[in-house]
Design goal:
Blueprint: H1 18-23, H2 39-49, H3 55-62, H4 66-79, E1 82-85, E2 92-95
Antiparallel strand pairs: 1-2
Helix pairs in contact: 2-3, 3-4
Amino acid sequence: MALPTGVEPVACPLGVSPHQEKMRVEMTVETQVEKRVKTPQAILVELAAEPTITLKQVAERIGKSTSTVERAVAVRVKDGRLRFVGPRKSGRWEVLGGIGS
């Protein structure tokens, strides 16, 4: 079917008539999004607050697996931002250079 002279085709989403398209109301909705704390940051916060905590306990508190926490801690130890001082069972963690670094 040919369109009358001077009438241009209108692209409408499937199932929406041109009339419905004109009647559409746009609204801006603002929602607060909770900013997630990155895993390494959460680990450092926990270890700074309680230096004698185990990595398993850290994992439980931040809702991550123990292996995830162990990997993240290994990177921080290698980077020199974290170290374990003392015997394995009664030692403590030291956060070096601050938590935000």
